[in-house]
Amino acid sequence: MPHQKTVLVTGGAGFVGSHCVAELIARQYNVVVFDNLQQGHRAAVPAEAELVEGDLASHAALARLFSTFRFDAILHFASNSLVGESMRNPHLYLYDNVVNALNLIQAATENGVSKFVLSSTANLFGMPDRMPIDENTEIDPGSPYGESKFMIERILHWADKVHGMRSACLRYFNAAGAHPDGHLGEDHDPETHLIPLVLDVAAGKRSHIEIFGEDYPTHDGTCIRDYIHVSDLADAHVRVLAMLDHKSCRYNLGNGRGYTVREVIETAARVTGRDIAVKTGPRRPGDPPVLIASSDRVRKDLGWDPRFPDLETIICHAWDWRCRNPDGYASHMTRELVGAS
Ligand code: UFG
Predict the structure, then answer these.
(1) Is any atom of ligand 1 closer than 6 Å to the C-beta of 257?
(2) Does residue 122 line the site of ligand 1, with CB under 6 A?
(3) Chunked mean pLDDT (size 10), the chain, 341 residues
(4) Could you give phi then psi for residue 174, rounded to 5 degrees?
(5) 206 lines ligand 1 (CB under 6 A)
(6) 92, 222, 261, 292: which to mutate for ligand 1, most atoms within 8 A of CB?
(7) Hey, whose CA ends up nearest to atom 6 of ligand 1?
(8) Residue 93 per-residue DSSP state
(9) 333: in domain
């Protein structure tokens, strides 16, 4: 029996957002996606969800949205989310990300929305020297991007104190993979993330992958990251909605296991059966040597248990999506045009 709860998903046409939309629909929620489609893809939004094209910077668009629908909860993904870009253009992050979130949070509290889930980031922790990183690790953002997410976490803290709006701040480690059924995946422009870039090389779209530094204090000299399957992230978002009636919370989301850049490349070569050419370059400024999550708290509180914890499965799903959609979501349009002719 559908429970008829309506959830607003900002940025629901993006990578993590679209997987959360799919999970919400599978669990019988009504979903409204609000996305300006600058980075998101219309084709990533299923027919069961209502897509409203708009920008969080526009008070008028938000007023229209909240007068058209009544939301039980909000999942907020829409933001600029590139660490490197934030170091070159902090304003896009410290102003746009924060002001857009403020506009949304104000509309939410004025309209009596009682639950809010924020897509936050491990970049909040900067370069910690102790692993794994749990929720008590000192906050020391590694970039204007991480700082902007921390500022939004603080705004949500006060929205709870003042208005009683409960919030969950979910700090992802390295989101990766694709929907196991192959209909959703990762398609950024420009692409900067390791796994999709490595798969571009496997697919013959790039000549090589550049490793950003081989002189880190790790077993093979390359950076270690904790890759978490995007569907496991989606599962955590939907689980947290159910317990948000009681109190606000913050969770770190990762598998608790790290892989080096070289191990990612080797695994991708095995999964795809292709050679992956590698060149070594200098370190990328701001990259911490190691980031590994402790997700004990979310496992205990929500019973969250990642279904796809191993790197091979994560890369296998990403490769499957890539093979079905060689041009990403643009492949959908090509298929529609061919189908219509
Ligand atoms: N890397 C390369 N070559 C590339 C791209 C990446 O060697 O061409 C390396 C990076 O140096 C890093 C690792 O691969 O060591 C992963 O890099 P990504 O760019 O895929 O991801 P990041 O760890 O830099 O950042 C990700 C998200 C951020 C988030 C952060 C939190 O993209 O939004 O995790 O840990 F803030």
Answers:
(1) no
(2) yes
(3) 83 98 97 97 98 98 98 98 94 98 98 98 96 98 97 98 98 98 95 97 98 98 98 98 93 98 98 98 94 98 97 98 95 62 46
(4) -95, 100
(5) no
(6) 261
(7) 194
(8) I
(9) no
